[in-house]
Input
Amino acid sequence: MKVRQFLQHNILLISTIIAVVLGVVAGMMCRSLKPSSDTIHLVQFPGEIFLRMLKMLMLPLIVASIITGLGNVKGSSAGRMGVLSMVYYASTSVAATVVGLALVLTIKPGAYSGTSTTDIQHNNAMASAMDIILDLIRNIVPDNLVDATVKHSRTETVAHEFQKNVNSSSGGDYRTSNNISQLVTARKTVMVDGANVIGVITYSIVFGVILNQLRRRGDVVAQFFTSINIITFKMITLVMWYSPLGILFLITGQILSTSDLTDTGQTLVVYIATEMAGLAVHSLVVLPVLYTILTRKNPYVIYLKAMQALITALATSSSAATLPVTMQCVEQRMKTDTRISRFILPVGATVNMDGTAVYAAIAPMFIAQYNGISLTFGDVIIISLTAVLSSVGSAGVPGAGFAMLLLVLKAIGLPERGISFLVAVDWLMDRFRTMVNVASDCLVVGVVSHYTKLPPRDTSETQSEPPREEQEMLEIDLV
Ligand code: ASP
Output
């Protein structure tokens, strides 16, 4: 009877785990058949549809969750949650960077190449680091809300060749003309593809706080967003039933499309081991210890309850796309107060990226070691700073950490030689760092819940609280 109940309660999680195993087995077996690129494309298709469904739900979920979440808490409680979560995000990102640096400096994965080629080019370092910070602030304040749903700002440095004509007279009656070409760099802020989630979050937070202050005058708007929230959660439940199939095909497709890594050599193996060790130490030791000290509770229980989200993160490489599933796990399994989870999770999925911070600390150091560049203490500090910032600035989408790395390399003045190693394994590393990002998000909710005692819901104060039957509808079971 108990086994039956357990199976009934966990059917979705069990099917997801089976899907992962089947996906790996099917991928490995079909690889030997050497499928054509068309076939691989078709195999990837059901997984692609799964990803599209999750992404489709992301924006309405973030907007409606934050607005309704903040609409139901007092300003002082929202402020407390905000400060607490920001301090926690910052501390864990710094801890992740320290773990990454400690490992990369001890193991020295890049040192195996034994070559020394280039020097660090400090010339533009401060300017590029400043661009990363300014872009982050720019994105926090979007200039166009509609644009922010599809594009974000990024500063690019463009180099123009500038031909200068120099006339020189050489004593006699004739003149020669020389063309001297000069490289002139200019900065340009452009809009690039990918939603500016952090900008949408800022708008939603301000909107939610002001809506809360309006009390009864804001009822209509509050109810509108409550309804959107309920509808979105219902849609998430539907998508989750498709998730085992989507995950199976995502994994099979990935294994089929990956080039053979068995003879990639020592450098790559040591690099993978260093990064995996960094992610494991941070997520299985550092974060759990911090969580236990802060809450006196068992952190691994949270990981078990969030397993569905962790597997989805592994399959999709996107913490933003995983957000709907994370939300379900946190609310249904961890039974967190929705007023906390709906504010903390969307923000966390966007700015709290511990896995990315571990990577952002290890990868530039790997490149420096690979190029035989010895870094000063100051360089290491700049790497740490840009690592933390780049983890905050990265969107929760596949490969965002790698894109950020290119900016970080530029900011520090490191060459790109050796980056092909990182490209070759990014599909794999990205999956694991996304898993760590999501794991950390779930722990933040646990910590903030522990320290935030919200008063019982008072529906006479604000109508943004959903009526009873809507509240029940929100409690949609995972199974
Ligand atoms: N893919 C990661 C995420 O979505 C970001 C990264 O590339 O590090 O959390």
About this structure: Residues 317-319, 353, 356, 394, 396-401, 430, 433-434, 437 surround aspartic acid (CB under 6 Å). The chain has two domains: 2-150+194-478, 151-193. Residues 151-193 form one domain.
